[in-house]
Amino acid sequence: MSQDGGRTPEILLLGASGKVGTLLRDSWAEAVGEAARLVPVARDGRAGLRWAPGDPLDRLPRVDAVAALWGVTPGPGRDLADNTRLALLAQEIGAATGARVVLHASSGAVYRPGPDPLREEDGPDPVSAYGAAKAEMEAALAGARGPRAVCLRIGNVAGADSLFAAMAQGGTVTLDRFPDGQGPRRSYLDPADLARILAALATADTQSLPPVLNTAAPVATPMAGIARAAGRAVVWREAPEGAAACVALDTERLSRHCPLDHAAASPARLARHAPALDSATEQTS
């Protein structure tokens, strides 16, 4: 990981108070140390520098890179088109702060799940409104002005996805079982590994960075394995029609910049981000 004249590179984190941003901040020091410094930004200032869209850009410090982990997820009253607006604003922020690169949070949801690992070359073919919104964001960034834009097609972040939300409800988790007798498998990413990836990409030669990059552990992880490693009992139900047994991201391209080994997909490692059982109420999710 290169540094400019011995100076520690700085990364502006947009969305610092969100689920992923909070997990990233909590993992940063242990994962990255002094190799890169995170500069968190949030609307209320509790997670770092107070700044919100509409505030003057000159309030933001000069940095080497911007990590735009903000965005809009599905929910009542939420406009998924804001993902594109926020991404274009992140490009403006990158230009105003002197950043070399802006790392945008896209999603593995831009792909149509299939039996084989999904590659960047496969192109977007989303099956959900959220995936479609992220694909539209990527398309808008392809012609955007400003610093180098890299869209990170992130897998499930441990501690922030639906499985971990279900585990927060109690000691029992309900999962789909498919005709082969197995449960769902997904490409996961530990927040500490996300920190390492952001630090590596922020200091890489910008010309070597692709416009889109799958961002996950190198192999998919059984969701049941994570639940059991967290001490949760698994209850099975028949998978409904259209449910995806496996969503696996091919990470060969990522490995050129920040290689991760198979331990990154370990259920035990990922399960450490689950809430303690004694703080949850026994429920079926």
UniProtKB/TrEMBL annotation:
User: Sorted alphabetically, which InterPro entries does this protein's record hold?
Assistant: Epimerase_deHydtase (IPR001509), NAD(P)-bd_dom_sf (IPR036291)
- Please indicate which superkingdom the organism of origin belongs to: Bacteria
- In this protein, which residues make up the domain named NAD-dependent epimerase/dehydratase? 63-204
Q: Protein name, please?
A: RB145-like protein
Q: Could you tell me which species this protein originates from? A: Roseivivax marinus
The organism that produces this protein has a lineage beginning with:
Bacteria, Pseudomonadati, Pseudomonadota, Alphaproteobacteria, Rhodobacterales
